[in-house]
Specification:
mainly alpha, 7 helices, 218 residues
Amino acid sequence: MSRDQAAEIRATGVSVDVGDVTIRYLLYGLLPGWFVPGLADWVMHRRTRIEDTAGTKESLIHSLMMAEVGIPIALTLRYEVNPLLLTVQSAGAAVHEATALWDVRTAVRSDREVKPLEQHIHSFLESLPFGALASMMCLHADQVKALLRGGRGDPDAWRLVRRRRPLSRTYLAGIAAAIGTCVVLPYAEELLRCRRAARRKTKRARSDEAHWRAEKGR
């Protein structure tokens, strides 16, 4: 913000609370923005026929990554940010990054084509948890300091504490519906599709083996 802009804001009596702006960005920008690349990634898996290549293994890895991100998000929406929650958020972001590497390695080794567009989508999915974590640390610098001290002197440092100002039920219901529609349903469909393809492959292999045995026994 330039000095002229700051002076104009002071002159009009408008105050800007950076904390409130950041919270609105997290709630109405970054979190909903996670659904778009997540859904786009599912489309890419479908186009490259994941069920015929990496199959169930890669689909389960996708479910694992959603849990690694989803659990910290769910806790943050319901509880106060403290050393415990910051630890969960940091661990979730780190484990998610490691799992993302495993995911790409699994796809490549299965001969599933990971196209440049899909790789670009992955870059968004990998950066969002770290962006959210950095914003939370800026908002709660006192809790970051408490974490670095091991939570000493704070009896609530290592337990979940309900939000003093709970988010509205309307917002929570909307987020839950969006997660169900844009994340849970598509990836459940992917896993089901992979399981069905695996069963078909197993049935075909058994049929071929039975046919081979029959031909050999003649």
